[in-house]
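Before a colleague's protein record goes any further, I have to sign it off. Alongside the sequence sits a line of tokens, each denoting a local backbone shape. I want your independent view on whether this chain really folds as the tokens say. Where you disagree with what is written, explain briefly why. This is what I was given:
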Amino acid sequence: MAALATDPDLLAALAAIVGPAHVATDEGARGLASSDLFVWPEQVLAEAVVRPGSTDEVAAVARLLAERRRAIVPRGAGMSYTGAVVPTSPAIVLDLARLDRIDVHAADLYAVVGAGCSWARLAEALQPHGLRPAQINPISGAVSTVGGTAAQNIPGGSDGFIGATVVLADGTIARTGAGARAGAAPFWRYHGPDLTGLFLGDCGAFGVKTELVLRLVPERPAAMASFGFQTAEDMLAALVAIQTRGLVSRALAMDPLKNRDAKKMDTAEAVKTIGAVVAKAASVGQAIRDVAQMARGRSALDDVPWSLHLTAEAGTEAAAEAQIALARAVCLPKAREIEPVVPKALRAKPYSIRGFVGPDGERWVPVHGVLPLSRAQACFGALRAAIGAADPELDRAGISVSYLVSSAGAYVTIEPMFYWRDALDPIHMQHLSERNRTRFGGAAPNEAARTLIRRLRRDLVAVMDAHDAVHAQIGRFYDFANVMDTGSRNLVERIKAALDPEGRMNPGSLGL
């Protein structure tokens, strides 16, 4: 396969489809489009970056690249940490950022959204309608895209996606859900076999998603509470009991390190968060109380080993408060109640990428497992034991470990997170403020820490999988095909062969 830089005919043909301004071949653009939030030794620089502006342009590019037998890597914001959008063999990267159209159908509770649209931009469009996506979406939604979430999946599932427009490897355009009928309203996911599900969590292995249809739900009243626990075991037991009874819509738990980090918010970010909380308040008096509560709550995290933050939603505020009262009864025998600053801030300002580096500019990378409720306690203990056994190595390498535990349903996500001093990459620098680029941009590469973290992440996945964990954002990191039973693996391979017989669509993702 010839290097694309030496193939001016192909570059010209791509430019004829998307416009010369939307084909990039400079090393900076190719490097940024070939990376995510971790460092992958097997990374290969993209041959070129193509930025199509419509489904038809994506299809035309796919047909052209099929004729030239070029591999395709579709990309959203690149906020992955599993190599999902990192080419490991020569490929053209399709940057889908220009596909950001939003078409809201409020009366039928759905929206058709371009794959390159950020979750924050979608939230702004839905706010005047009093609606939000039913789909769980990532905190990184300030930049993370709707298409990226559909491709990568997210803990809690992808049930909020009810249809998709997908371009296959040969340029065929396919629509799933009710929208598959010519001219029909795509208001429903299920019409015959669930073809939408085929393309959710596929990491781009089966096709390029250009539009997603999202179920919408009304914004509902909410009540919040936070609790401090002395032990992880007591915290997790309370969380599992609460979710077993279905008492809250969202639960988030933080360890002592994460509690401290939650307070290290720079002034500009703090002002934005307070402003968002005030804007959510029902009255001036409530706004004043909320600001005072935030000030008290920041200090309340000082002496809390483990904190649990709960949000309940219901048809009325009284009903939401009643749900929180039931959750409070579960927590209080082993906990003390603290100010609910964290859940209030998350509800008022749900999107941020502040955490994609540490509070002092450290590199960050997590590993996660989604556990059955009954296995979460044993898995958490095994993870902490495995990390504890590596403490001497972690100390020598200057690596700290924090834990985030969360749930929005009948599961528990456990997410150990590594922080260490290291050089930041272009994707970090792109999203940092000017002040933080100056503060954090001068660190030297730390290959010793990266090597240790690569090993420990693999070790922790093995621990999780021994407790029946599943994973979102499989990418090129979590094992998928090799842990399936023979029949299921054969089915996945046959689907891949039917949709992408030459293996050109994000080769290597899902282990295919």
Remarks:
- The chain is about 35% helix and 20% strand.
- Residues 57 and 299 are 53 Å apart (CA to CA).
